[in-house]
Structure formats: structure tokens, C-alpha cells
Amino acid sequence: MILAVLPWILWWKLVDRKRMFEIFFYGSLISIYSVLLDDIGSYFVLWIYESQVLPITPRLNPIDLTIMPVTYMFVYQFLKKWKHFLLGQVILAFGASCLSEPLFTWMHIYLPLNWEFYYSFPIYLGMGIMNKWLVERIAKLQQNT
User: Fold this and answer.
1) What angle do CA 39, 127, 69 make, to 5 degrees?
2) Comparing C-alpha atoms, which of 75, 90, 61 is closest to residue 27?
3) Alpha-carbon distance 145 to 137, whole Å?
4) I need a surface site. Which of 125, 127, 139, 140 has the fewest CB within 10 A?
5) What is the rounded distance in angstroms from the CA atom of residue 65 to the CA atom of residue 60?
6) Alpha helices, DSSP H only, in 53-116?
7) What are the CA-CA distances from residue 34 to residues 13, 63, 145 (Å)?
8) Closest CA to 18 of 87, 107, 93, 80
9) pTM of structure
10) For residue 52, what pLDDT is reported?
């Protein structure tokens, strides 16, 4: 429960209120991608979750709907220039794939079956980069109208 609520409280205290909609839109897309990719991976039995928060879903919702979007939103908010953002995304992708996933495996929460941790790195990286490009493009279109 703490993983599902505490990051959002922290986000609410730190979010740039002037860019709140843009930042939240960015994070919402990350949530959608996370849930979708988690469902695809579970469907193809690339990984399973040994522990589930809710028995009705095969994914780890606090990660997909809280940790992932809030972390990505902080990188998006605080690292505005592409050069800094890309470095932040590399660090985030490395941390998620090479630190968090092995930690969740060690904790018997996440069990990769036909998946290696390093497969996740380009996915985490690409999600953030593609999303920044898309959100900035939409924001620019909105400003021009």
C-alpha cells in the first residue's frame, strides 16, 4: 500500500504546477505502456509474479501505476534539456533493468522465465525517449492553436 500511495504524495509536493498537465500526461502514458507491456510479457510467459498485490491481476500494479510513472515524471520534469534528459533516462533504464528487476527477483516477487534483465534496458529507455518526443510535440501543437 505504501508503494501505491507514497510516491504520488511526493510527486504532488514536487510537481511543477505550471507544467502539471503536461507532466501528468507524460506519466499517464508511461503507466499505459507499463501495464500493456506487463500484460504482453505475462501473456507470452516471459515472466511471472510470484507475489501479487491483487489476486485478480497477473501484474504488479504498484510498480506499473505508481513507481514507473512517478519516476519517469521526475526525470521529465527536472531534466528539461534533451542532453540531460537522455542521461537521466539511461540511468533510470539501467536502475530499473539491472537493479530493480534483480531485487524483485531476489525478493521472490518477479520471476523472469524467458527473459533476461538486460532485455528491459532498451524498452525502459525507449519508453521515456519516445514519450518525451510525443508529449513535447503535442504540447507544441497545442501552443500553436
Assistant:
1) 75
2) 75
3) 13
4) 140
5) 9
6) 61-62, 68-78, 82-94, 101-106
7) 24, 9, 31
8) 80
9) 0.91
10) 62
pLDDT digits (tens, 9 = 90+) for 36-87: 999 899 899 999 988 765 565 556 777 899 999 999 999 999 999 999 999 9
* 130-135, Cβ contacts within 8 angstroms, sequence gap of 24 or more: 131/26, 131/29, 131/30, 131/33, 131/72, 131/76, 132/26, 132/76, 132/82, 132/85, 134/29, 135/22, 135/25, 135/26, 135/29, 135/76
Q: Spell out the residues 6+ positions from residue 105 whose beta carbon is closer than 8 angstroms to its own.
A: 111, 112
Phi-psi region of 81 (alpha: psi -120 to 50; beta: other; left: phi over 0): beta
pLDDT for 53 equals 57
Which residues, listed in sequence order, are joined to residue 48 by a DSSP beta bridge?
Answer: 111
How far apart (Å, rounded) are the C-alpha atoms in residues 52 and 50? 7
Assess contact for 34 and 69: CB atoms under 8 A.
Answer: yes
> Grid coordinates standing for 31?
503507466
Residue carrying the nine cell digits 505508481: 66
Please state, in angstroms and as integers, the Cα–Cα distance from residue 81 to each residue in 21, 35, 75, 89, 122, following that order.
Answer: 19, 28, 11, 12, 20
